[in-house]
Amino acid sequence: MSRQGTLGVAVIGTGRMGADHVRRINDVISGARVAAVVDIDAERVKALADSIEGCTAHTDPEAAMAAPEVDAVLIASPGPAHEAALLAAFRHDLPVLCEKPLTPDAASALRVLEAEQRLGHRRVQVGFMRRYDADYARLKRLLDAGAYGRTLMLHNKHRNADTPPGFSNAMVVNDSLVHEIDVTRWLLDTEITSVRMVRPAATSHAPEGLDDPQFALFETAAGQLVDTELFLNCGFGYQVSCEAVCERGTARIGDDHGVFVNSAGRWGGEIAPGFVERFEDAYDRQVQAWVDATRRGEVEGPGCWDGYAAAAVCEAGVRAQATGERVAVELIERPALYR
Ligand code: ISE
């Protein structure tokens, strides 16, 4: 490990999430530094590297991985570029934190899963950051402890103020619903076996070609039902909540994030503007947990199996959008490395 035990990280992709992770590694968390940055935009990446002491700029991910001060890789490039970056990291046998999605479809996720198995050990943590959110973690502990008996249903809400340009119906599943897919598998410790997608009356505030809101219904291998409202142009802010309905009670998180105010005859609070603000602490904890585990020589958190399973459910979800039918999820048997 370079520089007195500090983990030298190559950050691949310096767009919105990548730049935020660079800031996080440099200014927020401990035990790591940004040793290299990679982007197809040569000027942008050079300007960024010049602002960080001892950091090199690259346009080729593999060149950054070969740099002597690089001990680990954080992949924050667009999803279609993930497979090549992951396979390159395996060639250099470097630990990876890969932003979600692992890859954009189940076939490519399976290729990554197979490559990691050929390596013989787990190398990848996938950026399903909600697992590191304090509220979700508390809910997980409650459900695991069986405080209210068996969980029978989950009701999720996932609302964004608006969508970025070019946001498609497939992205509603692949970019947004993918979080509830991971949360469901993680909280209930089971696989999702089928998906249905339903479209209620549409808001007039959604861009042309995007059906908004949408409603997803999962069945799990343990027979539970999970519903998710996805309202991605709700206009008023970013809101994510999850209610677990159990045999002897219910538990809900996500309603009251932030400060609660009583004033001038009214009560209320603020709604986070976006996911970067709402999940800021979760992103910090996620990257710190990855750095700490990597420095101990371990791999923790959601891995390639979770990335592959989520991709398989997403694929069923996109098919369910087209047919309106219940679509079964096709998964390979879980390999020994991930049991
Ligand atoms: C975005 O890519 C995310 O990951 C956010 O968490 C999600 O809320 C948003 O809908 C996605 O577009």
Report the order of strands and helices.
HEHEHEHEHEHEHEHEEEEEEEHHHE
Largest sheet: 7 strands, mixed
Q: Tell me the Rg in angstroms.
A: 20 Å
Ligand inventory reads: (2R,3S,4s,5R,6S)-2,3,4,5,6-pentahydroxycyclohexanone
As for the number of domains, it is 2
Strand percentage, roughly? 15-25%
Overall SS class: alpha/beta
Q: Tell me, what's the shape?
A: globular
- Neighbour order of strands in the largest sheet: 12-11-7-10-9-8-15
Low-confidence stretches: none
Number of helices: 11
Helical percentage? 25-40%
Sum this structure up briefly.
This protein has helices at 2-5, 16-28, 42-50, 61-66, 82-91, 106-119, 134-144, 169-188, 275-278, 280-295, 304-323, and strands at residues 7-12, 32-38, 56-58, 72-75, 96-99, 124-127, 151-159, 192-198, 214-220, 225-231, 239-246, 249-253, 260-263, 266-269, 327-328.
